[in-house]
Amino acid sequence: MPTATAASKVASPKPAPVPDGDFYQLVDLLTPDEKAVVKKVRTYMEAKVQPIINKYWSDDAFPFELLPSFKELGLGGLGFEGYGCAGGSQKLFGFVAMELARTDASFCTFFGVHSGLAMGSIYLDGSEEQKQKWLPPMARLEKVGCFGLTEPLVGSGTSGGLTTTAKREGDTWVLNGQKRWIGNAPWCDLSIIWARDLADNQVKGFIVENKSTPGFSVEKIEHKIALKVVQNGQITLKDVRVPEANRLQGGNSFRDTARVLRMTRYMVGWASTGIQMGAYEATLKYAQERLQFGKPIASFQMIQDLLAKMLANLTACQCMMLRLAQLDDEGKLGDHHAALAKAFCTAKSRETVSWGREVLGGNGIVADYNVARFFADAEALYSYEGTYQMQNLIVGKAITGHGAFL
Length: 406
Known about the structure:
Blueprint: H1 4-11, H2 32-59, H3 67-71, H4 90-103, H5 105-125, H6 128-139, E1 145-148, H7 158-161, E2 165-169, E3 172-183, E4 190-197, E5 203-209, E6 216-220, E7 232-243, H8 254-289, E8 291-292, E9 295-296, H9 301-329, H10 335-359, H11 371-383, H12 388-400
Parallel strand pairs: 1-4, 2-4
Antiparallel strand pairs: 2-3, 3-7, 4-5, 6-7, 8-9
Helix pairs in contact: 2-4, 4-5, 4-8, 5-6, 5-8, 8-9, 8-10, 8-11, 9-10, 10-11, 10-12
């Protein structure tokens, strides 16, 4: 017969596997330098953001005290070359976005709006002089930007229906209108405003220096149920005068705006994948620790079924986004590619986080367990940067040759 000591060794439970949302080990496809950046971001988010983010989410507030330390990560302008930008591949940008959203989608959105939408507008549509002037301080996060396209009455119809207008008077442009749901707007330093030129009816972009421009005002949007850490605003422009030097010289039609949206739209796919990653890992950890009937609920068949389905959604999205980043790095990314990924990943994200909330039962609606935050935030990502239905129509046009928008 085995001794008592031997028997106890046999009976000792194995340590539970550490929750890991990278089931297919996709991080191994990064270079050593890229891995180091991703690791640095994960360490920062876990050490600095995770301990405080639930309180800020509950308070509908942004953790401004984190900005000095976040600047030190040197991520501004990730994916852009020159002008003090961080550079790197779109694959790296995607993995970083996924890591940010793995802890908090709002923090990822703040960064994406600034580094992707605002900086991207200047990088893709600005003149050389504008790039030299604005991109270096934005890359250092000394100046933070926002992107004003959506309006109170115009969302999906921005390509042809902007009500914000621009009228040229000599070397000055006069802007009038409103923008809504603009992330970072209540506190940032500059806004990229897209307006319809009354002279030719084309969409043009403008750099508005918020704090020094008369007629420019922002009202914070209150009572959100998703992305509560991001400060969204409604911008009002009343005879705002902008010099010709601040008009984006390469932003002369909605096609130029769309170049920015193409890049940032698929970044929402990375963010929604990161949400799934965070929700899956938090749910698995909870299931390993939560005891019912004397056993961890992770040992129950129905819980394992939900966890496996969460992981399948997450892994499918990771693989799709990785291929999309490769297409972008190869210069092959099209609007239809970005649209399919945005629609698919955000839809799967809603499904994944709902399963996580289900596993947690009543605790799934309490912010303290993190999953509730992911559950709510997934709703915003599903809608912004173009609705699910609009993305499918972009894909539909590409695969059938027929536009069905109207």
